[in-house]
Design goal:
Elements (H helix, E strand, L loop, with lengths): L3 H12 L3 H19 L6 E8 H5 L11 E10 L6 H13 L8 E3 L4 E5 L3 E10 L7 E5 L4 E4 L2 H15 L3 H16 L6 H9 L16 H17 L8 E2 L2 E5 L6 H23 L3 H12 L5 H9 L1 H11 L11 H8 L20 E2 L7 E8 L6 E4 L12 E8 L9 E8 L2 H6 L4 E6 L5 E5 L4 E11 L4 E5 L3 E5 L1
Parallel strand pairs: 2-5, 10-18
Antiparallel strand pairs: 1-2, 3-4, 4-5, 5-6, 6-7, 8-9, 11-12, 11-13, 13-16, 14-15, 14-17, 17-18, 17-19
Helix pairs in contact: 6-7, 6-8, 8-9, 9-10
Length: about 475
């Protein structure tokens, strides 16, 4: 399912750099420009232009409140006799000699960087215009003391053209989403200029009349991710990826073979998840699958609201199916105690705050697995008895010990890992910010201990993953935990 509204909200509220930070960035850059203009720096400044994500309008909000950065090129008239290093050394001195910047400035291979207390970083790179009377643009490499050809304006024009072919800023928005995916997952590395180029080269001139594949944001994402994966799968060895407007600049050198192989593998996984979420007809299941792609910030408010309101849905269901007369009182615990699983809302077992499995699954389960539980006064405490699924309501502060058993009641052999999905629901867990829904490891050999804390009907499920190839071979039915 496309979930266009959720995508637009996610892009605006989570992915895009917020307006306050954009204003701070622009204000800081203007101050830095003035500092250069007002200094006695020997080179003559011709102009300033933005570069990189800022220029391409693909800059995103940093994850986990880390610093975001922007690139600024300063176009200069060449100074007779100066080597490449001198432009960077003297530019650093411009700021190091000012009290406001001396603790903030650092030099790197191609730029100097001004750091603002972990909030933002601005890279300033000298760009030499027509050195030696030859029409060209060059940046300075301090490490090699060489001038290197550069075409920043042509690259931005190239990218803007392809973005225009997709309509509705499709390429820019998908690039932001893919950069967010890279940063929030942390499962692959790809420098932004390389990722932007890989995505941009998936767009061709005929797309300018393509009204289907870029009709909205999720469709554009599916299209571009699919094209990228197809291209990567057709190139098992690291290919040469050049700057599309400067053939001598090889972006693929920013990778090694291991990073390329990992990138190729991860994009294939995410493409599969994107296609699965896009094709899923059930709204709750589709939300859950899109959250598998982008994490818990996708559709977060809707997801939490649905998890907290299961009792309201259960009351509506009970009245509409004549399980309970209109106006009868009672939350899901009361209704489940009276009517069992018939009281559960239709979508209860696929609530979107449940994390979807991240492992590749067999087409057919390898064997059947069941979850059994015993009740105890405390963790590792005296046994109070067996606790069947849906029994109770059980008293708070007791403990349950969950174990996975085969259909004949045997424990699993040692060549499998058990991953437990523990999901809370209803208002008490919501107020405690403890709806959970993620995967947990066993904490006592092959079993999982959980304390009973929040009134509601909750679930525990076992997912069995084969150790040698990390394949999901089977999973249990939900085990219902009813807490008074």
């Amino acid at each position: 399912m496309k979930l266009i509204d959720h995508f637009n909200t996610f892009l605006t509220d989570v992915v895009n750099l917020n307006a306050t930070r954009v204003t701070q960035l622009e204000d800081s850059i203007e101050v830095l420009k003035d500092a250069i203009r007002d200094s006695d720096w020997t080179p003559t400044v011709k102009s300033f232009i933005p570069q990189g994500s800022w220029a391409h309008k693909t800059i995103i909000k940093p994850v986990e409140n880390s610093a975001f950065d922007a690139d600024l090129l300063v176009f200069l008239t060449p100074v007779d006799g100066w080597e490449a290093r001198e432009y960077l050394t003297t530019l650093r001195a411009v700021f190091a000699n000012q009290a406001a910047y001396k603790e903030k400035v650092r030099r790197f291979s191609h730029c100097i960087t001004i750091e603002y207390a972990g909030e933002r970083k601005i890279d300033i790179a000298p760009c030499i215009v027509d050195r030696g009377g030859v029409t060209r643009l060059e940046v300075c490499n301090y490490d090699t003391n060489e001038f290197e050809a550069s075409e920043p304006i042509k690259y931005t024009d190239w990218l803007n053209e392809r973005n225009g072919w997709t309509g509705g800023d499709g390429l820019r928005k998908v690039t932001r989403l893919m950069k967010y995916l890279r940063d929030v997952k942390g499962t692959f590395s790809c420098p932004s200029v390389l990722l932007t180029t890989l995505l941009g080269t998936r767009i061709i001139w005929s797309d300018s009349s393509n009204t289907v594949d870029f009709s909205d944001l999720p469709t554009a994402l599916k299209t571009i991710a699919g094209r990228l994966d197809d291209w990567l799968q057709a190139n098992p060895q690291r290919p040469t990826i050049a700057n599309p407007v400067l053939a001598s600049e090889i972006f693929s050198d920013l990778w090694d073979d291991a990073r390329y192989e990992n990138f190729r593998d991860k994009i294939n996984t995410y493409r599969t998840w994107i296609d699965d979420a896009f094709a899923e007809p059930d709204r709750d299941e589709s939300i859950g699958k899109w959250r598998r792609v982008f994490g818990d910030d996708f559709a977060q408010s809707v997801v939490l609201e649905k998890a907290a309101r299961v009792s309201d849905e259960a009351r509506i269901l009970a009245e509409s199916t004549a399980l309970s007369p209109p106006g009868s009182t009672g939350d899901l615990v009361v209704l489940f105690s009276r009517f069992g699983r018939r009281a559960l809302p239709v979508s209860f077992d696929r609530l979107p705050h449940k994390q979807r499995p991240r492992w590749h699954a067999l087409s057919k389960p390898l064997f059947q697995i069941n979850v059994v539980a015993s009740r105890h006064t405390s963790r590792d405490g005296p046994l109070l008895g067996v606790a069947p699924s849906g029994s109770g309501p059980l008293p708070k502060h007791n403990w349950l010990r969950f174990q996975a058993r085969t259909s004949v009641g045997m424990p699993l052999p040692g060549d499998f890992d058990i991953h437990w999905r523990v999901t809370n629901t209803d208002e008490a867990a919501r107020k405690a910010n403890c709806l959970r829904g993620g995967f947990e490891t066993s904490n006592d050999g092959s079993s999982r201990w959980e304390q009973l804390e929040y009134r509601g009907v909750h679930t525990v499920e076992a997912f069995i993953v084969r150790k040698r190839d990390k394949v999901l071979v089977t999973q249990s039915e939900p085990f219902y935990v009813v807490i008074e």
